[in-house]
Write a structure and sequence with these properties.
Length: 62
């Protein structure tokens, strides 16, 4: 089963790490539009590319 993304979710493209973190703009079925910080808006077919949730929590400091 494919992941279901909603607008506002933060993701990474597993094959394009240089694109940085992206924010989901829209999601209709397998078509997800993501605005990446270093690439801009990209339409992703999640039946082909499995986006990864971005961890935005800062690391714990000791």
């Amino acid at each position: 089963m494919a992941d279901r993304w909603t607008p506002g979710d933060f993701v990474r493209h597993p094959g394009e790490p240089d694109w940085g973190i992206g924010q989901v703009q829209s999601a209709v079925g397998d078509r997800v539009t993501v605005n990446f910080e270093h690439r801009g808006k990209v339409l992703i077919n999640t039946a082909v590319i499995r986006l990864v949730a971005a961890d935005l929590d800062p690391p714990l400091q000791r």
